[in-house]
Structures are given as C-alpha cells and as structure tokens.
Amino acid sequence: MITGLSHVSIVVPDLAAALRKLEATYGLSAGAIKVNEEQGVRMTYVDLGNAKIELMEPSRPDSPVAKFLERNPKGGIHHFCLGVDDVAQTTQELGAAGVQVLGEGRVQLNVHGERIAFVHPRDFLGALVELEENNQDNSHG
Amino acid sequence: MITGLSHVSIVVPDLAAALRKLEATYGLSAGAIKVNEEQGVRMTYVDLGNAKIELMEPSRPDSPVAKFLERNPKGGIHHFCLGVDDVAQTTQELGAAGVQVLGEGRVQLNVHGERIAFVHPRDFLGALVELEENNQDNSHG
Fold first, then answer.
1. Mutate which of A50, A90, A100, A128 to test chain B, going by most B C-beta atoms within 10 A?
2. What is the pLDDT of residue B135?
3. Catalytic residue among B57, B130, B132, B133, which?
C-alpha cells in the first residue's frame, strides 16, 4: 500500500555546487553526504518537512546516473519516490499485475538501510518511480 | 520562504487512461478533473496525504505541455512544486538574486485560485520548479 510521497530526486553534475546554490539562493540546506556504492551515487537530502529533495551525483564513471547526465548535462529530475508499507509485498503484487520492477524485482537497500525498489517508467505514466519502505514516517528519506 | 513539497507533476498523453491505470494497478484515485485555460492543461490530483501527484494532459494543440509530449510521447515527470508562504515576495527576492521567474515574473493562478510562479530549470539544478502559495496546508494542491 502506498503511504505517501517520500522525495523528488534530482541528478546534478556537481553535488557541492548544487548544495551551495540551494543554500545561497533558496535558503535550503542538506544533510550529510553519503555514498551508495551499489547504485553508484554520492547523495544527500534536503528535508522540506513533509517530504524531501534527494540530490545525487555519479560516484563512479559507470554509474547509472552518469547516463542520465549525458542526456541532461546540467542535471534534472531523475525520479520520485513513494512510501509504501511493505516493499516486498508491494513489488510482488505489482509484478503479478504485470508491472516491471527493476533489478528483476529484487528489493535493494538505500543509504539509510531502508528497503527500496524501482518501477519501470513505462508502468508509471513515463515516470521512474522508487518505492521505499517506511512504516513510521512518510517524510523520512 | 519555502514551506514544503506540494506535488510532483506528470504530463500524460491520455488523462483518462492514466487515471484508470493508477486506480487499477496502484489503488490510487484522483479528484475532479479541471481545466486551466491559461496554461492549456486538463488536470487533476492524486492526494497521497502529505503531498500530491498532479496529472496533466494538453487541453489545446498549442498547450505548452504538448511540446513536452513531443519529446516524451508516453509522458513523464514535468516539474515539481514547492509550497511557499508568499509567492510575490519569494519571486521578487529570487529575481533580485538573479533567478529567472517565468512569464516575466508575473504571479499566476492555479485551478484552485492559489498564487503560483515557475522558476526556470537552469536556476534550480535543471528542474522546472513551481512555487505555490499555500499558508495553511503544505499538502494542498
């Protein structure tokens, strides 16, 4: 079951420059920068209270988000993330309904250790959608 | 001042088909469909509790979102929207900081009569960002 909107994710070519821009121009500050080796991204979050903005840059040349930057050199919106009560159950049900869950439907972990999965854009109106398991707080991560 | 994340907006080629898909596959239902003649879109919202998903289709051939569909025929994420306490003040401050507010910085109205403005993607990390004035409820519209 979908429980809320967790975050909007932006891929940027230069994470440090992006954080300076958001702070100086919009008064928005981010948390600690972490690296997700599995997904090949260096990332952080701007907490807006009810939800977050996720910021990512490639942590290695073969990062999946490096391809996104080839198409969008200045950065752009990469995906958004819905909170769900149970990622494994949700992906199983979606798979049974014909939805393609990326990575062969395998549940992954984000930098906070939360269970996540991604739905193929063709199965969500052209939008890449992350599902994140977060029972207690929709606005977290 | 930015007060929260209001919504993520998806442009689709067929709004009725999109709503059927979200309902049947994800159990998500939308509110009433409205037309914003000024922006040339037929639109509705899926309320996720803490924030919303906005769905739009062109209401006329020269709609600005028709160009988006030429580049993304199956639809995709078009922009996201931040809640602000005062659109006029925020756009004035951003303009003074060198940010391009679309439509010559003029405040517009959305289908709920709320005051909105759009920031050029080059001034928000490549993302088209809407600002929406909504003092009492960050998750509304």
1. A50
2. 56
3. B130
